[in-house]
Amino acid sequence: MKPVTLDTIVSLAKRRGFVFQSSEIYGGLNGCWDYGSLGVELLRNLKDAWWKAMTYRDDIEGVDASILMHPRVWEASGHVANFTDPMIDNKTSKARYRADTLIEDYIAKLEKNGKTDRAKAVADRLAAAREPEDFYQIIVDEEITDPVGGSKDWTPVRYFNLMFKTFVGPVEDTNSVVYLRPETAQGIFVNFRNVLDSARQKIPFGIAQIGKAFRNEINTKYFLFRTREFEQMEMQYFVKPGTHPEQFEYWREQRFQWFLDLGMSPDSIRFKPHDKLAHYADAAVDIEYKFPFGWGEIEGIHSRTNFDLGRHEEYSGKKLEFVDTVTRDRFVPYVIETSVGASRSFMAFLCHAYNVENVGAADGGEDAERTVLKFHPKLAPVKAAVLPLVKKDGMPEFADKLYRDLQKSFSVQYDESAAVGRRYRRQDEIGTPFCITIDGESLQDNTVTIRERDTMQQIRVSADTVKEYVMKSLI
Ligand code: ATP
Hints:
This protein has 16 helices and 23 strands. The chain has about 475 residues and is α+β, with helices and mostly antiparallel strands. Strands 3-9-10-16-13-12-11 form a seven-stranded mixed sheet, with helices on both faces. Strands 20-19-21-22-23 form a five-stranded mixed sheet, sandwiched between helices. It has a three-stranded antiparallel sheet with strand order 5-4-6. Helix 5 runs antiparallel to helix 6 (about 115-130). The protein starts with 5 loop residues before the first helix and ends with a helix. It binds adenosine-5'-triphosphate. Adenosine-5'-triphosphate binds next to strand 10, strand 13, strand 16 and helix 12.
Protein backbone atom coordinates (compact mmCIF):
# COMPACT_ATOMS: atom_id res chain seq x y z
CA MET A 1 0.00 0.00 0.00
CA LYS A 2 1.20 3.51 -0.85
CA PRO A 3 1.96 5.65 2.21
CA VAL A 4 -0.87 8.10 2.72
CA THR A 5 -0.14 11.80 2.40
CA LEU A 6 -1.75 14.55 4.39
CA ASP A 7 -3.13 16.10 1.18
CA THR A 8 -5.05 12.90 0.44
CA ILE A 9 -6.63 12.99 3.89
CA VAL A 10 -7.48 16.69 3.64
CA SER A 11 -9.12 16.25 0.25
CA LEU A 12 -11.11 13.15 1.27
CA ALA A 13 -12.18 14.99 4.42
CA LYS A 14 -13.53 17.83 2.31
CA ARG A 15 -15.08 15.75 -0.47
CA ARG A 16 -17.00 13.46 1.86
CA GLY A 17 -18.02 16.13 4.36
CA PHE A 18 -15.75 15.45 7.31
CA VAL A 19 -13.90 18.77 7.59
CA PHE A 20 -14.07 22.09 5.74
CA GLN A 21 -11.87 25.13 5.99
CA SER A 22 -13.49 27.74 8.24
CA SER A 23 -15.14 30.63 6.36
CA GLU A 24 -13.98 29.09 3.11
CA ILE A 25 -16.04 31.36 0.83
CA TYR A 26 -14.08 34.30 2.28
CA GLY A 27 -10.74 32.65 1.67
CA GLY A 28 -10.62 30.80 4.99
CA LEU A 29 -9.34 31.71 8.44
CA ASN A 30 -5.95 30.29 9.28
CA GLY A 31 -5.93 27.67 12.03
CA CYS A 32 -9.71 27.18 12.13
CA TRP A 33 -11.73 24.31 10.67
CA ASP A 34 -15.40 23.33 10.48
CA TYR A 35 -16.77 19.83 10.87
CA GLY A 36 -19.23 18.67 8.21
CA SER A 37 -22.05 16.14 8.56
CA LEU A 38 -19.80 13.08 8.84
CA GLY A 39 -17.06 14.89 10.75
CA VAL A 40 -19.41 16.03 13.46
CA GLU A 41 -20.60 12.44 13.96
CA LEU A 42 -17.05 11.13 14.11
CA LEU A 43 -16.05 13.82 16.58
CA ARG A 44 -19.09 13.19 18.78
CA ASN A 45 -18.43 9.44 18.74
CA LEU A 46 -14.83 10.03 19.72
CA LYS A 47 -15.82 12.33 22.58
CA ASP A 48 -18.50 9.86 23.67
CA ALA A 49 -16.00 7.01 23.74
CA TRP A 50 -13.70 9.11 25.92
CA TRP A 51 -16.53 10.29 28.17
CA LYS A 52 -17.73 6.74 28.76
CA ALA A 53 -14.24 5.38 29.39
CA MET A 54 -13.37 8.22 31.77
CA THR A 55 -16.56 9.05 33.67
CA TYR A 56 -18.69 5.91 33.71
CA ARG A 57 -16.82 4.71 36.76
CA ASP A 58 -17.15 5.28 40.51
CA ASP A 59 -14.24 7.62 40.99
CA ILE A 60 -14.55 10.22 38.19
CA GLU A 61 -17.11 13.03 37.89
CA GLY A 62 -17.77 15.18 34.83
CA VAL A 63 -18.02 18.97 34.63
CA ASP A 64 -18.60 21.54 31.92
CA ALA A 65 -17.03 24.84 32.96
CA SER A 66 -17.36 28.12 31.13
CA ILE A 67 -14.79 29.20 28.58
CA LEU A 68 -14.43 32.69 30.07
CA MET A 69 -13.06 32.64 33.60
CA HIS A 70 -11.93 35.15 36.20
CA PRO A 71 -8.65 36.67 34.96
CA ARG A 72 -6.93 35.81 38.26
CA VAL A 73 -7.26 32.13 37.30
CA TRP A 74 -4.66 32.63 34.59
CA GLU A 75 -2.34 34.51 36.91
CA ALA A 76 -2.54 31.66 39.42
CA SER A 77 -2.04 29.00 36.76
CA GLY A 78 1.07 30.75 35.46
CA HIS A 79 -0.37 31.32 31.99
CA VAL A 80 -0.17 35.13 32.08
CA ALA A 81 3.54 34.99 32.88
CA ASN A 82 4.63 31.81 31.15
CA PHE A 83 2.27 30.59 28.45
CA THR A 84 4.56 31.90 25.78
CA ASP A 85 6.38 30.65 22.74
CA PRO A 86 9.66 32.09 21.47
CA MET A 87 9.00 33.88 18.18
CA ILE A 88 11.47 34.92 15.49
CA ASP A 89 11.08 36.66 12.12
CA ASN A 90 13.24 36.43 9.09
CA LYS A 91 14.02 39.95 7.90
CA THR A 92 14.33 38.98 4.24
CA SER A 93 11.31 36.73 3.70
CA LYS A 94 9.24 38.25 6.56
CA ALA A 95 8.29 34.68 7.51
CA ARG A 96 7.56 34.16 11.21
CA TYR A 97 8.52 31.05 13.17
CA ARG A 98 8.53 29.51 16.60
CA ALA A 99 12.25 29.60 17.36
CA ASP A 100 12.15 26.24 19.17
CA THR A 101 10.40 24.56 16.22
CA LEU A 102 12.91 26.03 13.81
CA ILE A 103 15.71 24.50 15.88
CA GLU A 104 13.86 21.17 16.23
CA ASP A 105 13.48 20.94 12.45
CA TYR A 106 17.19 21.67 12.10
CA ILE A 107 18.00 18.88 14.60
CA ALA A 108 15.80 16.47 12.64
CA LYS A 109 17.72 17.37 9.49
CA LEU A 110 21.06 16.71 11.22
CA GLU A 111 19.77 13.34 12.37
CA LYS A 112 18.55 12.47 8.91
CA ASN A 113 22.01 13.25 7.55
CA GLY A 114 23.65 10.96 10.09
CA LYS A 115 25.15 13.80 12.18
CA THR A 116 23.86 12.32 15.42
CA ASP A 117 26.50 13.76 17.77
CA ARG A 118 25.94 17.24 16.52
CA ALA A 119 22.17 16.75 16.68
CA LYS A 120 22.46 15.62 20.30
CA ALA A 121 24.59 18.63 21.24
CA VAL A 122 22.06 21.06 19.73
CA ALA A 123 19.16 19.19 21.35
CA ASP A 124 20.88 19.54 24.75
CA ARG A 125 21.28 23.26 24.21
CA LEU A 126 17.64 23.55 23.19
CA ALA A 127 16.49 21.62 26.26
CA ALA A 128 18.44 24.07 28.45
CA ALA A 129 17.23 27.21 26.63
CA ARG A 130 15.13 29.53 28.83
CA GLU A 131 15.66 33.13 27.74
CA PRO A 132 14.92 34.46 24.22
CA GLU A 133 18.67 35.04 23.76
CA ASP A 134 19.36 31.33 24.36
CA PHE A 135 17.23 30.36 21.36
CA TYR A 136 18.66 33.18 19.26
CA GLN A 137 22.23 32.15 20.00
CA ILE A 138 21.59 28.57 18.88
CA ILE A 139 20.12 29.83 15.60
CA VAL A 140 23.11 32.11 15.01
CA ASP A 141 25.77 29.59 16.11
CA GLU A 142 24.32 26.83 13.97
CA GLU A 143 23.79 29.22 11.05
CA ILE A 144 20.21 28.02 10.70
CA THR A 145 18.69 29.35 7.50
CA ASP A 146 15.14 30.38 6.70
CA PRO A 147 13.28 27.36 5.23
CA VAL A 148 11.49 29.77 2.88
CA GLY A 149 14.28 31.84 1.31
CA GLY A 150 17.49 30.50 2.84
CA SER A 151 18.40 33.81 4.49
CA LYS A 152 20.27 34.02 7.82
CA ASP A 153 19.08 37.54 8.57
CA TRP A 154 17.02 37.05 11.74
CA THR A 155 15.33 39.43 14.18
CA PRO A 156 15.95 38.86 17.90
CA VAL A 157 13.74 36.25 19.56
CA ARG A 158 10.75 37.52 21.58
CA TYR A 159 8.33 35.68 23.80
CA PHE A 160 4.73 35.80 22.63
CA ASN A 161 1.77 34.96 24.92
CA LEU A 162 -0.58 32.48 23.26
CA MET A 163 -3.74 33.46 25.12
CA PHE A 164 -6.49 35.24 23.17
CA LYS A 165 -7.54 38.37 25.01
CA THR A 166 -10.97 39.93 24.97
CA PHE A 167 -13.09 42.21 27.18
CA VAL A 168 -16.20 41.72 29.29
CA GLY A 169 -18.75 44.51 29.09
CA PRO A 170 -18.70 47.62 26.94
CA VAL A 171 -15.51 49.24 28.22
CA GLU A 172 -12.26 47.96 26.78
CA ASP A 173 -9.84 48.71 29.59
CA THR A 174 -7.39 46.69 31.64
CA ASN A 175 -9.98 45.97 34.32
CA SER A 176 -12.25 44.22 31.87
CA VAL A 177 -9.68 41.91 30.24
CA VAL A 178 -10.58 38.23 30.10
CA TYR A 179 -9.03 35.38 28.17
CA LEU A 180 -10.42 32.60 26.04
CA ARG A 181 -9.22 29.56 27.99
CA PRO A 182 -6.07 28.01 26.50
CA GLU A 183 -6.83 24.69 28.25
CA THR A 184 -9.82 23.15 29.97
CA ALA A 185 -7.86 22.03 33.04
CA GLN A 186 -8.27 25.26 35.04
CA GLY A 187 -12.07 24.91 34.95
CA ILE A 188 -11.52 21.65 36.79
CA PHE A 189 -9.06 22.95 39.39
CA VAL A 190 -11.28 25.87 40.39
CA ASN A 191 -14.22 23.48 40.84
CA PHE A 192 -12.26 20.98 42.92
CA ARG A 193 -14.04 21.90 46.19
CA ASN A 194 -17.49 22.13 44.58
CA VAL A 195 -17.25 18.66 43.07
CA LEU A 196 -15.60 17.09 46.11
CA ASP A 197 -18.41 18.33 48.37
CA SER A 198 -21.39 17.91 46.06
CA ALA A 199 -20.52 14.48 44.66
CA ARG A 200 -19.35 13.20 48.08
CA GLN A 201 -16.13 11.84 46.64
CA LYS A 202 -13.01 10.82 48.53
CA ILE A 203 -9.38 10.89 47.46
CA PRO A 204 -8.44 9.41 45.05
CA PHE A 205 -10.98 10.74 42.58
CA GLY A 206 -10.99 12.58 39.30
CA ILE A 207 -12.83 15.29 37.38
CA ALA A 208 -13.20 15.14 33.62
CA GLN A 209 -14.16 17.73 31.06
CA ILE A 210 -14.47 18.07 27.29
CA GLY A 211 -14.45 21.53 25.77
CA LYS A 212 -13.04 24.13 23.46
CA ALA A 213 -9.65 25.68 24.04
CA PHE A 214 -7.99 28.53 22.17
CA ARG A 215 -4.34 29.26 21.51
CA ASN A 216 -3.00 31.98 19.31
CA GLU A 217 -0.38 29.66 17.83
CA ILE A 218 2.44 31.40 15.97
CA ASN A 219 2.31 28.85 13.17
CA THR A 220 -0.66 26.63 12.55
CA LYS A 221 0.12 23.53 10.61
CA TYR A 222 -0.75 20.05 9.47
CA PHE A 223 -4.52 20.37 9.10
CA LEU A 224 -6.15 19.72 12.53
CA PHE A 225 -2.85 19.05 14.27
CA ARG A 226 -2.08 22.62 15.32
CA THR A 227 -5.04 24.95 15.16
CA ARG A 228 -6.02 28.12 17.01
CA GLU A 229 -9.36 26.79 18.15
CA PHE A 230 -9.62 23.15 19.16
CA GLU A 231 -11.20 20.78 21.63
CA GLN A 232 -9.59 19.05 24.56
CA MET A 233 -10.62 16.10 26.71
CA GLU A 234 -8.92 16.45 30.06
CA MET A 235 -9.06 14.60 33.34
CA GLN A 236 -7.45 15.62 36.61
CA TYR A 237 -7.04 12.79 39.10
CA PHE A 238 -6.56 13.97 42.70
CA VAL A 239 -4.42 11.67 44.80
CA LYS A 240 -2.67 11.46 48.14
CA PRO A 241 0.95 12.66 47.90
CA GLY A 242 3.20 9.62 47.80
CA THR A 243 0.73 7.55 45.78
CA HIS A 244 1.27 9.68 42.67
CA PRO A 245 4.00 7.55 41.00
CA GLU A 246 1.76 4.48 40.93
CA GLN A 247 -1.24 6.52 39.79
CA PHE A 248 0.86 8.03 37.02
CA GLU A 249 1.79 4.52 35.86
CA TYR A 250 -1.84 3.43 36.01
CA TRP A 251 -3.11 6.34 33.91
CA ARG A 252 -0.36 6.12 31.37
CA GLU A 253 -1.29 2.47 30.69
CA GLN A 254 -5.03 3.18 30.69
CA ARG A 255 -4.73 5.95 28.20
CA PHE A 256 -2.51 3.98 25.83
CA GLN A 257 -4.94 1.08 25.98
CA TRP A 258 -7.84 3.43 25.12
CA PHE A 259 -6.30 4.16 21.73
CA LEU A 260 -5.66 0.45 21.10
CA ASP A 261 -9.24 -0.42 22.07
CA LEU A 262 -10.50 2.03 19.47
CA GLY A 263 -8.50 0.42 16.71
CA MET A 264 -5.03 1.98 16.76
CA SER A 265 -2.33 -0.59 16.05
CA PRO A 266 0.57 -0.96 18.51
CA ASP A 267 3.10 0.16 15.88
CA SER A 268 1.24 3.40 15.18
CA ILE A 269 1.39 4.85 18.70
CA ARG A 270 4.22 5.13 21.18
CA PHE A 271 5.19 6.70 24.48
CA LYS A 272 7.57 9.62 24.37
CA PRO A 273 9.02 10.76 27.70
CA HIS A 274 9.51 14.53 28.04
CA ASP A 275 13.06 15.77 27.53
CA LYS A 276 12.44 18.67 29.85
CA LEU A 277 9.92 18.73 32.67
CA ALA A 278 7.92 21.79 33.64
CA HIS A 279 9.22 23.06 36.99
CA TYR A 280 6.14 21.79 38.86
CA ALA A 281 5.92 18.38 37.19
CA ASP A 282 7.67 15.31 38.54
CA ALA A 283 6.89 13.03 35.60
CA ALA A 284 5.42 13.49 32.14
CA VAL A 285 4.98 11.37 29.06
CA ASP A 286 3.31 11.92 25.71
CA ILE A 287 1.44 9.44 23.58
CA GLU A 288 2.46 10.02 19.99
CA TYR A 289 0.83 8.90 16.77
CA LYS A 290 2.69 8.21 13.55
CA PHE A 291 1.10 10.85 11.31
CA PRO A 292 1.84 11.01 7.56
CA PHE A 293 4.33 13.80 8.39
CA GLY A 294 5.99 11.94 11.29
CA TRP A 295 5.43 11.24 14.99
CA GLY A 296 3.34 13.85 16.80
CA GLU A 297 1.87 14.19 20.29
CA ILE A 298 -1.81 13.36 20.67
CA GLU A 299 -2.02 13.13 24.46
CA GLY A 300 0.02 14.21 27.46
CA ILE A 301 -0.01 12.46 30.83
CA HIS A 302 1.48 14.63 33.55
CA SER A 303 2.20 14.22 37.23
CA ARG A 304 1.69 17.83 38.36
CA THR A 305 2.29 17.57 42.14
CA ASN A 306 0.18 19.99 44.19
CA PHE A 307 1.24 22.94 42.06
CA ASP A 308 -2.19 23.84 40.63
CA LEU A 309 -4.30 23.51 43.76
CA GLY A 310 -1.51 25.13 45.78
CA ARG A 311 -1.42 28.16 43.50
CA HIS A 312 -5.21 28.51 43.51
CA GLU A 313 -5.17 28.37 47.32
CA GLU A 314 -2.60 31.13 47.32
CA TYR A 315 -4.36 33.36 44.77
CA SER A 316 -7.97 32.80 45.89
CA GLY A 317 -7.33 32.62 49.63
CA LYS A 318 -9.63 29.56 49.79
CA LYS A 319 -8.55 26.26 51.32
CA LEU A 320 -8.31 23.54 48.73
CA GLU A 321 -7.35 20.64 50.93
CA PHE A 322 -8.77 17.23 51.46
CA VAL A 323 -9.49 16.13 55.01
CA ASP A 324 -9.60 12.41 55.60
CA THR A 325 -12.42 11.89 58.11
CA VAL A 326 -10.97 8.61 59.37
CA THR A 327 -7.27 9.37 59.77
CA ARG A 328 -7.74 13.16 60.21
CA ASP A 329 -5.01 13.60 57.61
CA ARG A 330 -5.24 16.86 55.75
CA PHE A 331 -3.36 17.64 52.57
CA VAL A 332 -3.50 19.45 49.26
CA PRO A 333 -3.88 16.59 46.75
CA TYR A 334 -1.37 15.82 44.05
CA VAL A 335 -2.68 15.67 40.51
CA ILE A 336 -2.22 13.24 37.65
CA GLU A 337 -3.50 14.84 34.47
CA THR A 338 -4.47 13.18 31.21
CA SER A 339 -4.90 15.67 28.40
CA VAL A 340 -5.85 14.69 24.88
CA GLY A 341 -6.87 16.83 21.93
CA ALA A 342 -10.26 15.76 20.56
CA SER A 343 -9.53 17.40 17.22
CA ARG A 344 -5.94 16.20 17.07
CA SER A 345 -6.90 12.61 17.87
CA PHE A 346 -9.81 12.90 15.40
CA MET A 347 -7.15 13.49 12.77
CA ALA A 348 -5.07 10.56 14.06
CA PHE A 349 -8.05 8.20 13.89
CA LEU A 350 -8.91 9.49 10.40
CA CYS A 351 -5.35 8.92 9.14
CA HIS A 352 -5.23 5.51 10.79
CA ALA A 353 -8.53 4.40 9.28
CA TYR A 354 -7.47 5.34 5.75
CA ASN A 355 -6.61 2.41 3.49
CA VAL A 356 -6.44 1.86 -0.23
CA GLU A 357 -6.86 -1.80 -1.13
CA ASN A 358 -6.76 -3.81 -4.29
CA VAL A 359 -9.88 -5.94 -4.20
CA GLY A 360 -10.03 -7.09 -7.80
CA ALA A 361 -13.50 -7.79 -9.09
CA ALA A 362 -14.64 -9.18 -5.75
CA ASP A 363 -17.53 -7.74 -3.83
CA GLY A 364 -19.64 -6.69 -6.80
CA GLY A 365 -17.50 -3.61 -7.35
CA GLU A 366 -16.26 -2.31 -10.68
CA ASP A 367 -12.93 -0.97 -9.47
CA ALA A 368 -9.90 -3.03 -8.65
CA GLU A 369 -9.07 -0.52 -5.96
CA ARG A 370 -11.16 0.63 -3.07
CA THR A 371 -10.61 3.42 -0.58
CA VAL A 372 -11.84 2.33 2.80
CA LEU A 373 -11.90 4.01 6.19
CA LYS A 374 -11.55 1.21 8.71
CA PHE A 375 -12.98 3.00 11.72
CA HIS A 376 -13.88 1.05 14.82
CA PRO A 377 -17.70 0.74 14.65
CA LYS A 378 -17.95 2.91 17.78
CA LEU A 379 -16.27 5.76 15.92
CA ALA A 380 -17.79 5.26 12.46
CA PRO A 381 -19.97 8.27 11.58
CA VAL A 382 -22.54 6.03 9.87
CA LYS A 383 -23.10 2.61 11.40
CA ALA A 384 -25.05 0.97 8.62
CA ALA A 385 -26.34 1.57 5.10
CA VAL A 386 -29.59 0.09 3.87
CA LEU A 387 -29.48 -0.81 0.17
CA PRO A 388 -32.37 -2.26 -1.85
CA LEU A 389 -30.77 -4.33 -4.61
CA VAL A 390 -33.05 -2.86 -7.27
CA LYS A 391 -35.59 -0.03 -7.28
CA LYS A 392 -38.63 -2.25 -7.79
CA ASP A 393 -40.56 -5.33 -6.68
CA GLY A 394 -41.26 -3.94 -3.22
CA MET A 395 -37.57 -3.81 -2.25
CA PRO A 396 -37.45 -0.02 -1.68
CA GLU A 397 -40.50 -0.21 0.60
CA PHE A 398 -39.01 -3.09 2.60
CA ALA A 399 -35.69 -1.25 2.83
CA ASP A 400 -37.29 2.04 3.84
CA LYS A 401 -39.15 0.39 6.72
CA LEU A 402 -35.92 -1.20 8.00
CA TYR A 403 -34.01 2.05 7.54
CA ARG A 404 -36.53 4.03 9.61
CA ASP A 405 -36.50 1.44 12.34
CA LEU A 406 -32.66 1.32 12.55
CA GLN A 407 -32.49 5.10 12.53
CA LYS A 408 -34.19 5.19 15.93
CA SER A 409 -31.08 3.61 17.42
CA PHE A 410 -28.05 4.82 15.43
CA SER A 411 -27.06 6.76 12.32
CA VAL A 412 -27.96 5.00 9.07
CA GLN A 413 -27.92 5.92 5.39
CA TYR A 414 -30.36 4.82 2.70
CA ASP A 415 -29.04 4.49 -0.84
CA GLU A 416 -30.86 3.08 -3.85
CA SER A 417 -28.92 4.70 -6.69
CA ALA A 418 -26.41 2.90 -8.94
CA ALA A 419 -25.18 -0.68 -8.91
CA VAL A 420 -24.81 -2.22 -5.47
CA GLY A 421 -21.02 -2.54 -5.88
CA ARG A 422 -20.76 1.21 -6.41
CA ARG A 423 -22.85 1.77 -3.30
CA TYR A 424 -20.54 -0.49 -1.27
CA ARG A 425 -17.60 1.66 -2.41
CA ARG A 426 -19.33 4.86 -1.33
CA GLN A 427 -19.94 3.41 2.11
CA ASP A 428 -16.37 2.04 2.34
CA GLU A 429 -15.03 5.50 1.67
CA ILE A 430 -16.86 6.94 4.67
CA GLY A 431 -16.14 3.95 6.88
CA THR A 432 -19.63 2.44 7.29
CA PRO A 433 -19.06 -0.93 8.98
CA PHE A 434 -22.22 -2.68 7.72
CA CYS A 435 -24.15 -2.66 4.46
CA ILE A 436 -27.59 -4.25 4.67
CA THR A 437 -28.87 -5.41 1.29
CA ILE A 438 -32.49 -6.20 0.53
CA ASP A 439 -33.07 -8.55 -2.39
CA GLY A 440 -35.85 -10.73 -3.87
CA GLU A 441 -35.48 -13.31 -1.12
CA SER A 442 -36.02 -10.68 1.57
CA LEU A 443 -39.63 -10.23 0.52
CA GLN A 444 -40.28 -13.93 0.70
CA ASP A 445 -38.62 -14.91 3.97
CA ASN A 446 -37.81 -11.60 5.72
CA THR A 447 -34.03 -12.13 5.49
CA VAL A 448 -31.37 -9.63 4.40
CA THR A 449 -27.61 -9.79 3.84
CA ILE A 450 -25.14 -7.99 6.05
CA ARG A 451 -21.89 -7.18 4.32
CA GLU A 452 -19.00 -6.46 6.64
CA ARG A 453 -16.76 -3.58 5.54
CA ASP A 454 -13.28 -4.96 6.30
CA THR A 455 -13.68 -8.59 5.24
CA MET A 456 -16.34 -7.86 2.57
CA GLN A 457 -17.97 -11.13 3.72
CA GLN A 458 -21.73 -11.39 3.61
CA ILE A 459 -24.04 -13.27 5.90
CA ARG A 460 -27.78 -13.77 5.64
CA VAL A 461 -29.85 -13.01 8.70
CA SER A 462 -33.44 -12.31 9.63
CA ALA A 463 -34.28 -8.63 9.15
CA ASP A 464 -35.51 -8.61 12.76
CA THR A 465 -32.00 -9.29 14.09
CA VAL A 466 -30.13 -6.57 12.16
CA LYS A 467 -30.46 -3.93 14.85
CA GLU A 468 -29.10 -6.20 17.54
CA TYR A 469 -26.26 -7.30 15.25
CA VAL A 470 -25.12 -3.72 14.68
CA MET A 471 -25.66 -2.66 18.30
CA LYS A 472 -23.40 -5.47 19.52
CA SER A 473 -20.47 -3.93 17.67
CA LEU A 474 -21.04 -0.60 19.43
CA ILE A 475 -20.63 -1.82 23.00
P1 ATP B 1 2.33 21.17 21.64
O1 ATP B 1 3.67 20.94 22.27
O2 ATP B 1 2.03 20.30 20.46
O3 ATP B 1 1.99 22.62 21.43
P2 ATP B 1 1.32 20.98 24.24
O4 ATP B 1 2.32 20.08 24.87
O5 ATP B 1 1.34 22.43 24.50
O6 ATP B 1 1.26 20.70 22.68
P3 ATP B 1 -0.81 20.35 25.93
O7 ATP B 1 -0.87 21.70 26.50
O8 ATP B 1 -0.23 19.24 26.73
O9 ATP B 1 -0.10 20.42 24.52
O10 ATP B 1 -2.24 19.98 25.37
C1 ATP B 1 -2.77 18.69 25.46
C2 ATP B 1 -3.29 18.21 24.13
O11 ATP B 1 -4.10 19.21 23.51
C3 ATP B 1 -2.22 17.91 23.10
O12 ATP B 1 -1.71 16.61 23.27
C4 ATP B 1 -2.96 18.05 21.81
O13 ATP B 1 -3.66 16.85 21.50
C5 ATP B 1 -3.97 19.13 22.11
N1 ATP B 1 -3.51 20.41 21.56
C6 ATP B 1 -2.69 21.31 22.14
N2 ATP B 1 -2.50 22.39 21.35
C7 ATP B 1 -3.24 22.16 20.24
C8 ATP B 1 -3.48 22.91 19.04
N3 ATP B 1 -2.93 24.11 18.85
N4 ATP B 1 -4.30 22.36 18.11
C9 ATP B 1 -4.87 21.16 18.30
N5 ATP B 1 -4.69 20.43 19.40
C10 ATP B 1 -3.89 20.90 20.36
